[in-house]
Amino acid sequence: MQFLPLISSATTRPGKLIVLTGPSGVGKGTLMQKLLAQHPQLYYSVSATTRSPRPGEIDGKSYYFITPNSFQELVAQGEFLEWAEFAGNYYGTPRAAVLQQIKLGRSVILEIELAGARQIKASYPDALSIFILPPSFLELENRIRARGQDSDEAITRRLNRAKEEIKAASEFDIQIVNDDFATTLNELETILKAISSFSEL
Asked: Do 182 and 131 fall into the same domain?
């Protein structure tokens, strides 16, 4: 499987790696989509996963959907910058595409779970790590249930995991509470403007 995109231009100033994490249901995926829509100069790293596609998801755009055996082969080959298990499935960030984009001067943004974010912090200390928090645990539960994508058992697993993930927020460079979507998006844009390799908004 080929993860590396074609590159048409280059620059000498390295880009910045930005890691966006937080518990499931906190809204980080929606924030990511809005950022990318408004600021195409950001490079979004598409993750690989062993879970099944959800309605509307596109292979190669939403995720690279691969089998567990293929995923383990890529792990053994060192093809992932980080990888982790979440809710019974594996997720990983293809290494080559991320590092090449940074080398060519683009800011790369990753939306990943806690375990993967910790791996990035350990192996790539120059990354800027941002943790998205819910306004309350009850609100987080309401958001997860409102998606209508998971069974009660799966929701319980996600909520139990979220309790542990929220405890780790202080490990990250910046913590943002996603109470009001527009305000949170504005905070993220302000942070990105402060990154020297991030093009003018």
From this structure: yes
State how many domains the chain has.
2
- For residue 130, what are the domain limits? 16-42+107-196
105 marked ligand binding residue: no
Q: Is 22 assigned to a binding site? A: yes
pTM beyond cutoff 0.90: no
Is 121 found in the same domain as 101?
no
Q: How far apart are CA 92 and CA 85, in angstroms?
A: 9
The pair of three-digit structure tokens given for residue 119, joined into one six-digit string: 């791996």
Residue 197 counted as an annotated binding residue: no
Chain segment 10-53, per-residue pLDDT in tens: 445 788 999 999 998 899 989 999 999 988 889 988 999 999 99
What are the residues whose beta carbons fall under 8 Å from the beta carbon of 12, sequence distance 6 or more?
Answer: 105
16 in a labelled binding site: no
Q: What is the pLDDT of residues 168-188, one digit of tens each?
A: 999 999 999 999 999 999 999
Q: Is 25 annotated as a binding residue?
A: yes
Tell me if 62 is assigned to a ligand binding site. no
